[in-house]
Structure formats: C-alpha cells, structure tokens
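Progress note, sequence design subtask.
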C-alpha cells in the first residue's frame, strides 16, 4: 500500500514537472553584452521561446542622432526580454485612421529614437545539435515606417513548424536613418542600413548561444525591407554575416531605392529650414541634433518639390562605403557577391499606392476614374519624366479602342505604378544577377487572401504575401480558408527549405533556377504551382530599355536649347 502511494506521488510529481513552464535556466541566455531572460509562448500544439526587445545598439540620441550606430553597452544582471522594445520614430497612417488595412501596419509599441532592439524566437530546447538555420527579418515601409513588433511578423510559427530560429530587428527610419549632409563624415547617410548591419553582426556573434548556426543565416524582407536585403547583398561590409537572401517585392535598383547626393543634400537643407535651423552645412548637424523628433518626423514630408505617388523623403545614397556605387551600375558591371537568392513579386503590386495620392481613389467603392484623372495619376507616377516619356507610357497603358473606360484606366494606372516601381526593377535585378552567375530562384504570388480588408479590385496587393510566409492562416480564429492554410504551410516550407539548403523546392514541387535567358519562375497560389518563363517581358522592355533612351534624347534636346 505504501509503495503504491509512493508511486502515485511520483506520477503526480512527473506530471507537474512536464506540464510546468520551461525552467528559468532555459530562458536565460548569456550574450556578449549580458544575460537576457525570455519567455515561453504557446503556438499550435506546443511552445517556443521568445526573447524580445534585446538591445543591439546604443540609443542613437543626442550626438549619435543621424550617425552610424554603436554597439550596445554591456549590462550587469539579467535583462528582461519578455516585451518588444520601442519602435523607431515614425508617423502613423493619417489617411485612413482606424481602417483595419491601414492600422495593421502602424507601430504597435511606443515610438522613440531609442529603438535599436531585436527579437529572437527559438525552439524550446536550449541546445540543439546540430545548430539550427537562422532567418533574419527586415521589415518594409518605404524607409519611413515599419517595426519588427507587428503581429504580422510573429516568428513563432516559422520556428515551431520548421525548427528554425527567427530574428527580427528595428532600424532607424526617415531622416533619423537616412539623412545625409554634404562634406560631413559623421552623417554620410545610410545609418538605417548600418543599423541592420549591426544587428547582423550581433546575430553572428551571439546566435550560437540560442542554438543557431552563424554560418547558416538567411536575411529576408519585403518592399523597402527587400530593398534593404538587396543593399546588404551588395554591400562589401556585410558579406560575412549571412549566406542567403530572400527578397519579396523590392530591389535596391528600384526608383525608390536611392536618390542622388545632390537631391538628398537639397532635402536636408529644406528640412533644416523647416525646423528653424541654418542651412549652412557647417551648422546643420548640430542644430538638427537639437531639433525635436516630432518636428523632424513631420517636416521631413515637406522636402519634396514635385508631387509623387511613391517616394520617401530620405532613402539610401551612394556613400562610397556601405553603398559603393548605384545598385543599377553594380548589376551592370557584374562584380557581385555570390549569395543564394530567392525573390519574387505579387500580381497587383501597384494598387496599394494609388489610394495614397492618385486622384479619384479611396477605400470605398470601385475607384473608377476618368481619363483626366488617369492622366493626372500617370504624371505624378512619373514626376521626373519628360513629356515624350510620359506619352510613350500612355501609349503602352491605354486601350485605344476604349480609352474612356473608367475601370480600364484604373487598372492601367495600377500597371504603371506596379511596372515602374516594382515589377521591372525586381525582374531587372534577377536577370542581371543570374546573368553574372548568381544562383537565384523566382516566384510570382497570385492569391488574394479571403480576409483582406481592402477593396476587391485591388487584387493580390503589395505586402500581402507576408501573412502566408509567417503562418497567419495557422491561427484558426482569423478565419482563413482550408486551402489558404495548406498554401501557407507550403510557402513556409519553401522559404525554410531555402534557408536550410539553398533550394526552395519541396516534395512534389521542383523549383527551376532562374536564368537570364529563359527567366524561369514558379507561381504560388492555392492551386498547384506552375513553372513559367519571362514574366512581364514586353512591359518591362518599356521601362528598362525604351523609356531610358527616350528620356536621354529628351534631356539632350533640352540641353541644346
């Protein structure tokens, strides 16, 4: 009887031991700068560990504002890493406040200049053998918005389903991250890209303590985050920190990816004037460092001299160091690092941006626009183009048998924005990279989520593959369809297989390499994937070949007058 009682007590003890949260020791990790304590988070039928809000850089305030980041200082004791850190300074959406489709992208933690924090999701086992592949996420937002703490970027599903470690980091935005001042070695620009690089250095030095493999790091991002991934791929100083890259709907050679030094310096002077500072280059930095963050984040949007449907006030520049040359020139010359790359596009990349500046567009109704509104929208979509270049674009994007059709004009304008700013630069990057011997895979995403809150006509929008990459359909309460759940699982498998092996193919789906000649790609949707070739080949000839030549002739004629 006593033996049975002792056995029962032992079973109860084992039950409580196995049902209790992970031991505290499993949640305390020693990094090079100090110990951090994370937490366990539930996911599907299990748990993962989350270490949130780990500082990787000193707060870039005071004299460090606008400058390259410095590594975080060491701390004593155990730092709490159970909550996300601050988001970097930015404005929330003021065009559609309260609308679900806009709010989902707004920062969900306090905004602050003290924002250089990163997050790590790992399996619950403290030590893994062999160490796990690492996927480092870089968010998008036009270099003016975004944060690593969005619900959409929760790394727990990738970690739980595919046994990878996920990392995400914040980086400075707008003027705080991309201001460049003339003849100023302290503020050459690209501080936000250097924030990303510093986070990658942190991963290289510390991820082994979390069970990760520093020699198997994949960086991935979307939109400006994808452009950032491309900049890291091209930057000489970043090469040792990752081996593979995934680029979703963006490239550093896109029109929004860089601006000239002359233009960025002019914008810096306008910003200085707007916040009450001298425009003398010798005095600008000290004065701007004392200006209020609220003034800077607001006034930076008044530095433009032309209306533009898609443009950010401060973006990467050629600094001769981090960005040694224009990305387009580097792609032509072919002196490129050899990283494995997976990249692609969504079917309707241009529609989202029409609602933020094109005449006649809003979130209610069908946004059926007149011919005049189409022409106005095209003009602000090509703000630096000559009249001849615009005429060539109008010729391509018009149904001349039905030129006043409001629906067709709406869709053609979406085609202009999507083609100029996303499709053609991304495809150009892929073709040039492949031509010069790079290993690259390409996808075309074709599914519109059944829970997408934006108007139906906007289609498969920019940014709306992310929910499937991060496994949102795995959450039953969100209301996705069964075929969307299956598609999300396939996409997660594609992305993580690429991170693990360099090949995104999965069982039953062979993914062809992209070549400059055939330009192979794979479709992704709820239906079976298909292998196709030469996406938008005719349309992109306009943007990459014809229009640049037309613009050069126009510039030459103007110079002769």
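Output:
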């Amino acid at each position: 009887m006593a033996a049975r009682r002792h056995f029962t007590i032992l079973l109860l003890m084992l039950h409580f031991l196995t049902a209790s949260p992970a031991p505290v020791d499993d949640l305390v990790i020693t990094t090079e700068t100090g110990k951090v304590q994370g937490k366990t988070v539930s996911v599907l039928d299990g748990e993962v560990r989350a270490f949130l809000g780990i500082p990787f850089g000193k707060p870039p305030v005071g004299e460090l504002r606008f400058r390259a980041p410095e590594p975080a200082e060491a701390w004593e004791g155990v730092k709490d890493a159970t909550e996300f850190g601050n988001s970097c300074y930015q404005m929330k959406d003021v065009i559609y406040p309260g609308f679900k489709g806009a709010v989902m992208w707004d920062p969900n933690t306090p905004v602050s200049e003290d924002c250089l924090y990163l997050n790590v999701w790992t399996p619950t086992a403290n030590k893994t053998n062999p160490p796990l592949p690492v996927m480092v996420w870089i968010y998008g937002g036009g270099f003016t918005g975004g944060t690593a703490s969005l619900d959409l970027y929760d790394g727990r599903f990738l970690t739980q389903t595919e046994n990878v470690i996920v990392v995400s980091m914040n980086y400075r935005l707008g003027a705080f991250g991309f201001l460049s001042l003339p003849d100023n070695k302290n503020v050459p620009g690209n501080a936000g890209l250097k924030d990303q690089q510093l986070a990658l250095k942190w991963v290289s030095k510390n991820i082994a303590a979390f069970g990760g493999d520093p020699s198997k790091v994949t960086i991935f991002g979307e939109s400006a985050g994808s452009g950032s991934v491309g900049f890291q791929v091209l930057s000489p100083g970043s090469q040792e920190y990752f081996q593979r890259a995934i680029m979703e709907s963006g490239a550093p050679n896109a029109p929004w990816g860089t601006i000239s030094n002359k233009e960025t310096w002019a914008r810096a002077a306008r910003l200085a004037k707007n916040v009450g500072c001298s425009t003398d280059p010798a005095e600008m930095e000290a004065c701007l460092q004392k200006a209020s963050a609220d003034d800077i984040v607001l006034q930076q949007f008044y530095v433009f001299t032309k209306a533009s449907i898609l443009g950010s006030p401060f973006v990467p520049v050629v600094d001769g160091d981090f960005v040694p040359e224009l990305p387009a020139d580097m792609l032509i010359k072919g002196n490129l690092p050899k990283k494995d790359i997976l990249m692609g596009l969504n079917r309707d990349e241009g529609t989202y941006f029409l609602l933020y500046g094109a005449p006649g567009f809003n979130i209610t109704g069908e946004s059926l626009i007149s011919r005049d509104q189409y022409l106005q929208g095209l003009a602000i979509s090509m703000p630096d183009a000559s009249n001849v270049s615009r005429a060539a674009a109008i010729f391509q994007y018009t149904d001349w048998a039905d030129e006043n059709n409001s629906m067709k004009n709406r869709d053609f304008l979406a085609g202009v924005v999507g083609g100029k700013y996303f499709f053609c630069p991304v495809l150009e990057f892929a073709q040039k990279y492949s031509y010069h011997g790079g290993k690259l895979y390409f996808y075309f995403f074709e599914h519109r989520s059944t829970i997408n809150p934006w108007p139906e006509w906007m289609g498969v929008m920019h940014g709306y593959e992310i929910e499937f990459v991060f496994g949102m359909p795995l959450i039953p309460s969100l209301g996705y369809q069964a075929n969307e759940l299956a598609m999300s699982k396939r996409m997660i498998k594609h992305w993580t297989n690429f991170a693990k092996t360099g090949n995104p193919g999965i069982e039953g789906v062979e993914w062809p390499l992209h070549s400059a000649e055939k330009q192979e790609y794979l479709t992704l949707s709820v239906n079976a994937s298909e292998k196709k070739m030469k996406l938008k080949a005719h349309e992109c000839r306009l943007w990459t070949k014809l229009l640049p030549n037309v613009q050069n002739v126009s510039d030459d004629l103007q110079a002769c007058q």
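The domain at 1-231+239-258 is CATH 3.40.50.1820 (Rossmann fold). Work on this subtask will continue into the next period as scheduled.
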